[in-house]
Amino acid sequence: MTELERYKYDVLVIGAGGAGLRAAVEAREAGLRVAIICKSLFGKAHTVMAEGGAAASMGNVNSGDNWQVHFRDTMRGGKFLNHYRMAELHAKESPDRIYELEMWGALFDRTKEGKISQRNFGGHEYPRLAHVGDRTGLELIRTMQQKIVQLQQKDAREYGDAQANIRVFAELTITEIIKESGKIAGAYGYWREGGNEVLFEAPAVIIATGGVGKTFKITSNSWEGTGDGHALALKAGANLVDMEFLQFHPTGMVWPPSVRGILVTESVRGEGGVLTNTLGERFMFKYIPEVFKDKYADNEEEADRWYLDQDNNRRPPELLPRDEVARAINSEVKAGRGTEHGGVFLDVSKRIPAEVIKKRLPSMWHQFYELAGVDITKEAMEVGPTCHYVMGGVEVEPDTAAAVGVPGLYAAGEVAGGMHGSNRLGGNSLSDLLVFGRRAGMGAAAYVKSVTAVAVSEASVKAAADRIQVPFTNSGGENAYSLHQELQEITHNLVGIIRTGSELKDAIAKIADIRARSKNVSVAGDRKFNPGFHLAFDLDNMLLVAESTAKSAIEREESRGGHTRDDFPGMNDKWRQVNHISSFNGQEVIVRQQALPAIPKELFDLFDIHELEKYMTPEEIAKGGSN
Amino acid sequence: MARKVNLRIWRGDSTSGSLQNVEVDANEGEVVLDVIHRVQATQMGDLAVRWNCKAGKCGSCSMEINGKPRLACMTRMSSFEEGEEITVTPLRAFPVIKDLVTDVSFNYKKALEIPAYEHPADLGPGEARMEQIDVERSQEFRKCIECFLCQDTCHVIRDHEENKKSFAGPRFFIRIAELDMHPLDMLKNRKRTAQEEHGLGMCNITKCCTEVCPEHIRITDNAIIPMKERVVDVKYDPARWLGSKIRRREGS
Amino acid sequence: MSGVFSPSRAEIKERTLRTDKWWLQPLATFGVLFSFVIYATFRAFEGANYYADHLISPFYSPCLSEACVPEATIGGWTPISAQVFNFALSPALIILIFPLGFRMTCYYYRKAYYRAFWMSPPACAVAEPHKKYTGETRQPLILQNAHRWFFYAGLIFNIILTYDAIISFKNKEGEWGHMSVGSLVLVFSTVMLWMYSLSCHTCRHTIGGRLKHFSKHPIRYKAWTTISKLNHSHALFAWISLFGVAFADIYVRQVASGAWTNFYFF
Question: Where are the transmembrane segments (chain C) (predicted)?
């Protein structure tokens, strides 16, 4: 056993995706020493998969846009379950965050006037998404990665060491967040490459680990989306909010099997892509819910006209929020009108000339051509829902991104909850991670400057080290790969896109069973870059996430956004006032109800009262906002 | 419709290693990475391989397949003949860590050596105006997913370890080109330092980097050669040299 | 041990594991270029059979030596003595350095001959046999940076060869308005030379590539866009124009030596 590596930093950022990097930049610029932990190589984070764009109401394409409209769209998309303050901050601050990226060298697509171009997206009233073709996430990551390199170059000039104040620890897994006397003291983990262990002492830890997709069988997420941050936060005493809400992106690839789940960007529909079933029927017109009737076209002619004249026509129903489209596709397939591979058709080839498709959707063309042998300029794509995003996450204070109940712990990006309510709008995640990444960096910096760091005790170090050793001391135990597969089957079949009470009950029991068996996982080989060993830890995280999801889902007896109950179809105003809070007692996840913070009057008044009546109880309407 | 395929996978670490034969199922529509994962889940639980998105977007699963640098997630099994043996090795230009995983830290060191973008001091948030035609050239280079296949195939460092000190490699030549062509970048001496500090002159434009790029970035034609021409502008153009001499004399 | 056999790299004894016929392309390049060099050398020293009936071989144009056949010169202009350094130079040797230099420093041919002749590398991901490598950083290869000057010289040659192609529309008696197979051969060769020059990377750079802001120079941007498209096929033009020139020379030689008869269409 090699000696334990020890580091001391002011702020430890777990996760090097968009939120983590943005937080790190902010904390560093506040004068602090920052460590960034990255489970894979630097710059490979799942953020690169975001295609469509970052929503910000700059009003470059339609000057009617402003933060109030963006706020309304976000709340509407989340079915009013969003934390109003997060949605407000997000809508107000995202334009500045985009401009900031431009000042760091990002090159967004341009309008004719040379401003940042913005594109249409589901649920957004105006063209709002700043984008670079269909690889916007890559642009964000690369820009922030290069910003960090720039900060390091500055430190190299000033201190002779590029890593003096900001260092990236690539291919390192954090297994535990350590608290001493109720406050954050650091974190413990191991290098994936060699398996040797590392202790970080830091008074503030920012969790920015992204999502949980790998808990499910069909997902657009990479192997990294194993809910590490959700689980680390739970174990550190933080709460998760509304874990029942998972977004199934309506359009994932369905064929061939090896690419099942890989994302087909919403921009395909934004650019004019049409969904049809095997009867050739453009079926989305049948699925426009009551609450959206006045915003979406109910006939093909008007929908087609919208692409040319957006002011005088309602938008095509293909651009409904993601939960609606996903459910519609699911229903079509269930009704026997799907393809043999269980999807529906998405076609751009009939509307858009081939060269325009290749220019506007280059990576989609590439992805289908290389992975499925389909030329999307000539043929339709086959698509179906795929687990894409978790709306639920760590419960935070909106202004500082501080995790509720754990001094020194912060969370930003997909791992944080509340911002998106029951359903996230496309494009709101990239802006979310910029806005709240920065706020987490600011929040952590202010906290660090106000407290004295506590040292990590040797007892905590030993406990963390012992835990890492477990899979090697178990012999002849369970195989992590097969347990993971079992878990994915359960979540897919019982906690998936359509849920019922009895299946959820079944799922909770089965997840508990896997969790019990997982204590006995054993690993072949040694610690050196051993994927079986890595999975043993990821599995534990995924199990906790699945448990919170199933337990929150069985409580919520209504259908809303990313949570659909077959036995309770339709929204229920009573449930709109409730958040589900998951906590961990050391043995199992406990879910309790908590009142959703009420919208203050000035935000309440931004809405048309008739719209609010669709979501709120008469008493809430009568109150007219909280103050 | 599973078929059996024969794989030769390189297993080992920095001290020793060898190609090991394994027989494994391959299903319709699968890529090499799927098959490697199957080997991992069923036969070699500790087989080390890097991967992330499995959609050709993150550039993690770089390796050499039948001797060619490729992304395992973008190499379809159907591209091989029935019964063809498929050899999979780690990247051969970088130090090996274990099995198919190599130490690519060279690239991150080089990234630190390229001076960052410099924004005009007088342009505040939202004030920048750039034309689409002016950003397109740099946007091509920003498609780079940092798979480092170009760095791996480049003979300047693949075949000459000692050149690693003085050669940034194709990935960072496109970074330099991106910044030099950025409509707003204020740093002036990128051309000269490309030649004098980052080893642009070492490149003999044999185009292997362009051939392996999974993003189809035209590295040589659109970045390296234009940069070489820009270097000629500032360093090797006799007319300009003469002109600058005369101007200097007039100025003094 | 260096390169792929360095101790830190994965231990694999083969210099490549490629299973395709990677050696085919460099071998073919070597064969063709080598044959061309042999033929061109022979012709350059031959000093005869380069002119017949208003057809002049591109290897000998412009013919600047006092030794030139008078009809092959530019209006009888022969600034160069027949005896240079007391040595009888073929008129071709005086001028061939320019087209040769243009092709030697061409970004495409560099790739072709570095691979085929110098095996640096022989093919992608195939270990090269050299112990040391310094690229184009020092003498003599740093002279590759003079490509631009050969490009300009090449343009002058293109103009002269265009003039030659026009002259070929005369009949034996020197009357205009006639066309022979020889005219077609020279026109084809000259057009391909223009395509080769225009599609060249230096041309692309000079015409617009060097600009930072295309939007401020719309005409140059348009020209750059067109040349960029041609540039995609630069390698193709490089080969076609090479064969075109060689065939033009062969044709003139055969006609001049009386082996072939130049057929007149009208």
Answer: 22-42, 87-109, 149-170, 176-196, 236-256
Residue A249 catalytic? yes
Q: Both B183 and B58 in a single domain?
A: no
Two tokens, residue C102: 């243009």
Is C10's Cβ below 8 Å from some Cβ in B? yes
The verdict on residue B14 lying in a domain is yes
Q: Does A624 touch chain B (CB under 8 A)?
A: no
Q: Which domain holds residue A318?
A: 251-385
Asked, for residue A111, whether it belongs to a domain, the answer is no
Query: Where in the sequence is the domain holding B216, given as residue range(s)?
Result: 105-239
Q: Report the C-alpha gap between A21 and A40 in whole angstroms.
A: 14
Please give the Cα distance from A386 to A249 (Å, whole number).
5
Split into its structural domains, chain B has a count of: 2
Kind plus residue range of the DSSP H or E element containing A9: none
Beta-carbon contacts of residue A26 (< 8 Å; ≥ 6 apart): A437, A438, A440, A441, A442, A445
Domain boundary among A321, A355, A385: A385
Q: Is A465 a domain residue?
A: no
| Candidates A249, A439, A484, A576; catalytic one | A249
Do B166 and B209 share a domain, yes or no?
yes
Consecutive H or E run containing C187: helix C181-198
Under 8 Å between Cβ of A5 and A422: no
Decide if A547 is inside a domain: no
Is A323 inside a domain boundary?
A: yes
Nearest residue to A220 (alpha-carbon basis) of A264, A269, A274: A264
Looking at the fold, whether B124 and B67 belong to one and the same domain comes out as: no
Listed residues A326, A351, A385: the one ending a domain: A385
For the whole model, what pTM was predicted?
A: 0.93
Cα-based angle A113, A116, A117 (whole degrees, multiple of 5) = 85
- Which of B43, B77, B102 represents a domain boundary (last residue)? B102
SS3 track for B11-61: EEECCCEEEEEEEEEECCCCEHHHHHHHHHHHCCCCCCCCCCCCCCCCCCC
Last residue of a domain, one of B68, B102, B136: B102
- Res A456 pLDDT > 50: yes
pLDDT digits (tens, 9 = 90+) for A60-105: 999 999 999 999 999 999 999 999 999 999 999 999 999 999 999 9
Question: Are residues B118 and B95 both part of a single domain?
Answer: no
Do the beta carbons of residue A117 and residue A111 sit within 8 Å?
yes
Average pLDDT of chain B to the nearest whole number: 93
Q: Which two tokens stand for residue C123?
A: 């093919």
Residues 47-106 of B with CB under 8 A from C: 64, 66-69, 84, 87, 89-90, 92-96, 102
What is the pLDDT at residue C85?
64
Render pLDDT for B37-49 as a digit per residue (tens, 0 to 9): 999 888 888 899 9
Q: How many residues does chain C have?
A: 266
The residue of B81, B200, B229, B241 whose CB has the most chain C CBs within 10 angstroms, and thus the best one to mutate to test that interface, is B229
ipTM, interface predicted TM-score of the complex: 0.94
- Residues B53 and B149 reside in one and the same domain: no
At A255 the pLDDT is 84
How does pLDDT run along chain C (266 residues), one tens digit per residue? 689 999 999 999 999 999 999 999 999 999 999 999 999 999 999 989 999 989 999 999 999 888 888 888 888 888 888 777 666 778 888 889 999 999 999 999 999 999 999 999 999 999 999 999 999 998 889 889 999 999 999 999 999 999 999 999 999 888 999 999 999 999 999 999 999 999 999 999 999 999 999 999 999 999 999 999 999 999 999 999 999 999 999 999 999 999 999 999 99
In a domain, B120, yes or no: yes
Query: Residues C65, C114: contact at Cβ < 8 Å?
Result: no
Task: Verify whether the Cβ–Cβ distance B126 to A99 is below 8 Å.
Answer: yes
CATH code for the domain of B225 = 1.10.1060.10
Alpha carbon distance, N-terminus to C-terminus of chain B: 81
